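Suppose you are handed a protein chain with no further information: no name, no annotation, nothing but its sequence. What can you learn? This example shows the usual starting point.
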Amino acid sequence: MDILKVAIVGGGTAGWLAANHLGLVGVDNKQLSITLIESPDIPTVGVGEGTVPAIRQSLKKFGISEAEFITRCDATFKQSIKFVNWLDKDSHGDNNFYHHLFDMPPVMGKELTQKWLANKYRAYAENVSPQHAVCEAYKAPKNISDVEYSGSLGYAYHLNAAKFADLLAENAKTRFGVNHLKANVEQVILGNEGEIKSLVTDSHGCLDFDFYIDCSGFASLLIDKALKVPFNNKAEQLFVDKAVVVQVPTLADEKIPPFTISTAHQAGWIWDIALSTRRGVGFVYSSQYMDDETAVKKLDTYLNGQLSAHQFRTIPMTVGYRARSWEKNCVALGLAQGFLEPLEATSILLTDFAAGFLASRFPRSTQQLTSMSSRFNQVMEYAWERVVDFIKLHYCLSDRTDSQFWIDNRDPATMSDELKQRLALWQKFVPNREDFFSKFEVFDLENYLYVLYGMHFSTQETTEMNAELTELENYQKRLIQVTKQLVDNLPEQRPLLEKIKMYGLQTV
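A reasonable first move is to predict its three-dimensional structure. Written in structure tokens, the prediction is:
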């Protein structure tokens, strides 16, 4: 049977990202009909307000103007995650920090890393990229004269998640003809072989489709409640399971950091994301090591005693992912597929990755479901497991001893075999491209380099160099010159954003 009618259950960022990715498929398949069913009673969770650079490619593919996106979603540029106090204060100083930059180390990255290991005379990121200095100078990654979705340095965005979902919805409906129904799904009817046959809604009756995408968030109406796909809980590896979240207004002339601030505390960490008019702040912690009352008090301290002046809420987090993201004629995306703490903006990243991968291999008939679902599940399991490893890396490398939370995170029993093998290898050799053999590693070599050596991971020094020493020295001299030019010539965030809203950006 041909697959011609697709239902996406749930809106928000996940649902409308899926609608746009599938809408692109529908451009070449005029028979494909896509309907997004969104509950009018369930608000957007709105936690994921950080992205990674890959989102630029998706927005460009969808045909969304970067200037419009920035204006409508209160977006700011994000060039890095600045990790503060993830190392012991006595050994590395109070407010010690490192940058996980979005600008990739150069072709001489290995040689620069080897030279840095020999003396470590400054921060690793500062040694390989001009973006470290640009971030510390609070400069943007581009100028008003740069074309859309390009700049002098790699970047992503901070954004208002609710406004982002609205923009994606408008684009999917107007550009790709996605149907939009406001309704609550009251019942899921299964067919003779356990597949989803139809949905019973409160305002549109019984609706039949050929294929279903579950974007219903933590409720997981289809993949969990109807199809009973089990959940792979990762609490034994990643301990944090709660977050206290709040939004704090900012002053109109306040400088906007071009990075997410991630500040570690005794039992977790705090995210601090600056938009043009407010900051989104979340105190992430493990209830096994800290009670709710203490968490609220510590967030209040972080906000200089101002927490009571704002509305805040506590969000429970079940960390893990579905054993099978694709079951029968249903694929789960977004929070319905899984959730990890938002340390590296993993929520939108994995949703965008999975939706794009599904769209690139979308089944044309039910005869293709078995083989395609098997491949999809294999890829997604690998992707999720490697993301778990990357998040765990931040904890197990820390030398903090001020609480049992950090000590327990270094226990090898809480790490995957793959992560333990990689760390053992990297004690002897600088990581290289061949260590990341799959293209489905959503965090790759460069990401690991910034975190490993930002946290002072020890790799055996080597004198072997693939590049001539003079060539390396010349490159470093050019790096110093480029850094100064960028710091001097790039604008600060707020003035640039105001110009973009007024004049727009050049299109290609």
